[in-house]
Amino acid sequence: MKTSLDHLPAGKQRELAFVVEVLTDAFAEAIAGRKAGGVKDGQILKIVLFGSYARGDWVEDPVGRYFSDYDLLVVVSDEKLTDVLEFWDGAERRLLAELSSGQRLRTPVNFIVHTLADVNAQLARGRYFFTDIARDGIGLLELPEHPFVEPQPLTPQTALDEAQGYYEDGMASASGRLQLAEFAIDRGLNKEAAFELHQASEHLYNCLLLVLTLYTPKSHNLVRLRSLAEPLDPRLATVWPAETKFERRCFELLRAAYVKARYSRHYKIAGEELAWLQQRVRVLQGLVNEICQARIEQLGGVAKGKN
Fold first, then answer.
1. R_g over Cα of the chain
2. What DSSP string describes 87-105?
């Protein structure tokens, strides 16, 4: 794996060094005093930069209000340590606070956590997402003697079969959630409608990621899912316009709905906000359907050519 960040400006290199420091410090605090096996002696084995900042095609567009995130894979020693809420919430909160202050961090950070065994199993199965990381990723932290295995090729027919299955399941689940949202809207159940629109969006992003990369993170965070999905097709960046305060508020209400629409009595969403969100989720549904169908057609052509 590559280790050089020479293609990045010095300021970006300093930011990434700081991010690694935050992750390692927050992890140490999270496992301090733990006695459970696999946790008390838990380790971060690797931190890998992937995506646009690793490839060198990141975007910073103040006019269009689009900025690439740092995408990081954190590789840990035990499956228990992949629990984001239990072991990584502190890191996420600190990174958000540092981003808000803008003193040491001005670039958003998204990270995913997997065990080395899981990553190597995915590489052995030829999963695109992980093979791309193994090929293009840059190691920011690596303990010795914990290598990635050599990625293996994925047969065209297997890729087609898996993508087709993910597409059928994902679109059906998203459609069902949209129907539940419409049912709730018709009956004035605004909080329930917001939750179902969140779930429809989550299913659509998961569907897209699985069809295109055969991977999606274990996350209900729409911002994280967007950050992984939007670089895959530029049209996805148009789904959630953010030119007005109303548009930004609506997406924030959708993002927060997974927890707050169910558990907070302070969560409020108006009919016009729900209507806007419903329309935008329909736009997302149409785009995901188009992108996934094109991918499946492409995979079908490759599989047919190999027969």
1. 20
2. HTHHHHHHHHHHHHH-SS-
